[in-house]
């Protein structure tokens, strides 16, 4: 039998009378049914309590019935008197009663009324009589005309009479009231009466409730007695007194035979029982039982534990030269008496073994924690900090991590270079050690240098006897010794053949020096951390390469142009490098193209794909294509990239990309936009209102087979065109509609300049670092006014060339550009002549004064001119060559109804 169970039973027996068998009985074993019958028969305490409860209930029922009868009689008489008096007075004062007495036949008038009133008021009779007591009405017509039986003298004097009598119909209450004339004279009498048997009935209604209540009380008393008897049977486990006595005797024999000490203490801290083993282990005196445990000369902590009665499990206490494992449980948790039972086990020899096992378990637990707690991020510095924080204070009081500078930047380290202190953790904040960020060059005699050369961990158990370590920095090491640092282990961070740095473990609070077992643990711990640090280093290198590639592919400066005032922002994602990009491309005719794109995914592949798309957009924009045509070419390019990857068996994912391309014309103040799976642009009008123009959403790039559409809209001067990537308005926690609403609110509150707009949009974001890249570009539109544009229509006649030259020359004079008149005349002469000769009507000429002087000639032909060298015998073919020599740039732009040949000249 377990000692705890035995001791608990003994505690209960001590509180119930002890194991001396003083509880006797005549039956060997009780069944539950027999015990309940015995309880109800009155032979047991429960039965006596039950009989007492029954007597009390019956006495209460008798008293309640008597009180109910007496109260019912009183209420019946009172109600009968009140009702008869009220009916008599009401009938006496009723209209027509007094007048009927003076009629020739009062009975004919009053008898129907009296009977109707009697039926309505539920009285037994209403009798109207004259002053002599002769009846005019009565429920029995044969009694009309006879004298009234009762007292009428007070009523004749103007009063009322209420009396209890016994009539032919039984006990009744009748009232007599006068009928008065207007002058106060009594002219008749009215009597109303009701038998008491017809009043009340409350007792009859309440008596069943009293009886039912009594029956319920008896049932509850019976159930309570049964429950008490059943609880007693359960506590004694169905045993009779003889069996219980024999059980207590056996328990007493076992109690003193077990090799564990057993103590029973009551709720006041007094010792009730101690077996022989407990007396031996604790050295208790012979008279210990009955005394308080605090007075037995035990150690204070042991006495406090035994007197407290709290739960204790294998708590070790030193008593003299023994280590005792104490287990203690309260006895009242399962319905027993207040107190506690404690068992004592001598664990002096087991303690040493368990201590070593506990140390091994703690070390395994620390290694497991290192596996899951080091390397939670791909950051070199944070990984080093996690290693230092894990080992303090479980293994060392201070931990320092020193890494080569190349490791922090993601490069391969070179042994022999100086180290940088990357992490420091300890039980105190001010240790005399090199601080974080310090560059350290260890002297050859130091344990750190020896560990780096050997490539394995080194231990210095006593630093006061280590001159090689003290030679590192005499002043600092002296301060460390005074501080209490007395032992160290240093281990190199080795990842394969690379040594990334080293970790040093220091002890100051723990007086025990490091030993060889600690050295093995340190090597294992550092080896696991080195893998995580090397992974972080590799990630840092790849991330740095991707960021460098991405930064090199994004525009570093924006080109000069006058059509748009532009501000932009680019925010990289929290992890990885994305493929978001943007660009600003000046086009012919002072027009400017804005492009924003997003390559799906992160890393080098996304950055490289973004660079290819940006280069392609640069090349396609030189063709002056419409936005939908340019997106169609990009779509074909992305599909070709995917085909090349599939053909080469590459592991790169299928390229997914979105793009928005917009062309703004400052002369016409119109913007043409097309998008391929990209979020729509936002337009902030000069009055501050925000719109999201309806731009047809084409498919993402690379799908193929579906056309793109261009939307054109007029943009007032001073409006702000906002282009962005989906990272600004969409993430895993919110839908794009919510993001667009937040963007609208930020734009409505933003200042008028593009810089203010970019700042307001990014400040309104709830996240400090986005989960996806964000590219944002804000362009405020400007217009090229009519005073800077010269345009005219040209007749299809060679003679019209001179008229064009003269008109443009006058306009150049107005602009103060007389120095460009000669070259402009030559350029326009050649271009207009070619349009008249090879093109088709209509022909128009337009000259724009912006950052340069731009000449444009439009005709309805789609034939493109080509620059070539004319032979010596050719009469023509030198016009475009001459234009190319005189102009800074020239080219052709195709329109739906023809083409435009343009040429630019720098302004003086």
Automatic annotation (TrEMBL):
Residues 9-29 are annotated as: Disordered. InterPro entries: Bact_Sigma-Reg (IPR052016), GAF (IPR003018), GAF-like_dom_sf (IPR029016), HATPase_C_sf (IPR036890), HATPase_dom (IPR003594), PAS (IPR000014), PAS-like_dom_sf (IPR035965), PAS_fold (IPR013767). It is a multi-pass membrane protein. It is found in: Cell membrane. Residues 247-284 form the PAS domain. The chain crosses the membrane at residues 50-70, 209-228. Keywords: ATP-binding, Cell membrane, Hydrolase, Kinase, Membrane, Nucleotide-binding, Phosphoprotein, Transferase, Transmembrane, Transmembrane helix, Two-component regulatory system. One of its GO terms (molecular function) is kinase activity. GO terms for biological process: phosphorelay signal transduction system; regulation of DNA-templated transcription. It holds the Pfam family HATPase_c_2. Its main location: membrane. This is Histidine kinase. GO terms for cellular component: plasma membrane. It comes from Streptomyces spinoverrucosus.
């Amino acid at each position: 039998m377990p000692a705890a169970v035995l001791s608990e039973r003994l505690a209960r027996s001590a509180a119930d009378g002890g194991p001396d068998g003083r509880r006797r009985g005549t039956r060997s074993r009780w069944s539950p049914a027999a015990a309940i019958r015995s309880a109800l028969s009155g032979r047991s305490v429960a039965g006596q309590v039950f009989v007492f409860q029954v007597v009390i209930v019956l006495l209460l029922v008798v008293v309640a019935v008597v009180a109910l009868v007496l109260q019912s009689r009183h209420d019946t008489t009172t109600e009968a008197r009140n009702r008869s008096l009220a009916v008599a007075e009401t009938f006496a004062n009723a209209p027509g009663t007094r007048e009927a007495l003076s009629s020739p036949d009062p009975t004919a008038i009053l008898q129907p009324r009296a009977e109707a009133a009697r039926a309505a008021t539920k009285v037994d009779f209403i009798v109207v009589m004259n002053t002599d007591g002769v009846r005019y009405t009565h429920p029995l017509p044969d009694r009309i005309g006879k004298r009234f039986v009762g007292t009428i003298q007070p009523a004749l004097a103007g009063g009322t009479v209420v009396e209890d009598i016994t009539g032919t119909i039984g006990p009744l209450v009748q009232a007599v009231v006068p009928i008065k004339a207007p002058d106060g004279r009594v002219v008749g009498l009215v009597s109303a009466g009701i038998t008491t048997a017809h009043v009340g009935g409350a007792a009859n209604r309440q008596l069943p409730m009293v009886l039912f209540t009594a029956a319920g009380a008896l049932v509850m008393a019976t159930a309570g007695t049964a429950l008490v008897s059943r609880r007693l049977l359960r506590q004694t486990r169905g045993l009779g007194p003889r069996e219980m006595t024999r059980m207590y005797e056996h328990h007493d024999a076992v109690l003193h035979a077990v090799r564990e000490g057993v103590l029973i203490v009551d709720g006041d801290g007094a010792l009730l029982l101690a077996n022989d083993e407990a007396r031996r282990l604790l050295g208790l005196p012979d008279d210990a039982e009955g005394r308080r445990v605090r007075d037995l000369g035990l150690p204070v902590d042991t006495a406090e534990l035994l007197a407290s009665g709290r739960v204790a499990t294998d708590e070790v206490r030193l008593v003299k030269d023994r280590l005792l494992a104490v287990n203690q449980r309260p006895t009242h948790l399962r319905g027993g008496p207040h107190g506690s039972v404690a068992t004592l086990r001598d664990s002096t020899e087991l303690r040493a073994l368990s201590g070593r096992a506990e140390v091994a378990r703690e070390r395994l637990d620390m290694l497991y924690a290192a596996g899951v707690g080091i390397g939670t991020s791909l950051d070199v510095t944070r990984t080093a900090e996690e290693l230092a924080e894990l080992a303090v204070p479980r293994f060392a009081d201070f931990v320092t991590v020193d890494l080569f500078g190349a490791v922090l930047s993601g490069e391969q380290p070179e042994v022999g270079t100086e180290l940088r202190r990357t992490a420091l953790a300890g039980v105190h904040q001010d240790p005399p050690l090199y601080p974080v960020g310090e560059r350290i060059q260890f002297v050859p005699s130091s344990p750190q240098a020896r560990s780096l050369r050997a490539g394995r961990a080194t231990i210095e158990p006593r630093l006061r006897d280590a001159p090689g370590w003290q030679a590192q920095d005499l002043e600092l090491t002296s301060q460390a010794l005074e501080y209490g640092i007395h032992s160290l282990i240093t281990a190199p961070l080795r990842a394969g053949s690379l040594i990334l740095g080293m970790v040093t473990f220091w002890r100051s609070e723990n007086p025990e020096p490091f030993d060889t077992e600690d050295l093995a643990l340190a090597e294992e711990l550092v080896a696991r951390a080195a893998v995580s640090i090397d992974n972080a280093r590799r990630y840092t290198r790849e991330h740095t390469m991707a960021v460098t590639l991405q930064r090199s592919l994004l525009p570093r400066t924006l080109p000069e142009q006058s059509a748009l005032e532009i501000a932009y922002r680019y925010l990289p994602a929290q992890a990885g490098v994305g493929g978001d990009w943007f660009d600003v491309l000046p086009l012919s005719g002072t027009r400017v193209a804005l492009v924003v794109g997003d390559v799906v995914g992160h890393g080098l592949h996304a950055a490289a794909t973004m660079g290819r798309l940006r280069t392609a957009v640069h090349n396609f924009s030189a063709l002056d294509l419409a936005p939908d045509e340019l997106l169609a070419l990009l779509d074909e390019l992305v599909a070709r990239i995917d085909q090349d990857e599939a053909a080469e068996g590459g592991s790169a994912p299928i390229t997914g990309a979105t793009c928005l391309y917009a062309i703004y014309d400052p002369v016409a103040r119109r913007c043409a936009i097309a998008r391929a799976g990209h979020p729509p642009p936002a337009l902030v009008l000069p009055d501050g209102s925000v719109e999201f123009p309806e731009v047809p959403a084409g498919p993402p790039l690379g799908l193929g087979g579906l056309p793109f559409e261009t939307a054109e809209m007029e943009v007032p001067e001073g409006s702000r065109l906002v282009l962005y990537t989906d990272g600004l308005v969409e993430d895993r926690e919110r839908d794009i509609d919510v993001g667009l609403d937040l963007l609208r609110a930020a734009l409505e509150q933003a200042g008028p300049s593009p810089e203010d707009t970019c700042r307001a949009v990014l400040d309104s974001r709830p996240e400090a670092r986005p989960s996806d890249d964000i590219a944002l570009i804000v362009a405020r539109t400007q217009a090229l006014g009519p005073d800077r544009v010269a345009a005219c229509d040209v007749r299809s006649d060679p003679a019209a060339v001179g008229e064009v030259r003269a008109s443009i020359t006058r306009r150049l004079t107005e602009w103060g550009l007389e120095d460009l008149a000669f070259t402009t005349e030559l350029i326009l002469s050649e271009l207009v002549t070619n349009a008249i000769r090879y093109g088709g009507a209509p022909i128009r000429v337009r000259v724009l004064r912006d950052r340069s002087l731009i000449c444009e000639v439009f005709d309805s032909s789609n034939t493109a001119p080509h620059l070539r060298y004319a032979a010596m015998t050719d009469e023509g073919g030198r016009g475009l060559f001459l234009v190319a020599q005189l102009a800074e740039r020239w080219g052709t732009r195709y329109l739906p109804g023809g083409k435009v040949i343009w040429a630019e000249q720098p302004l003086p």
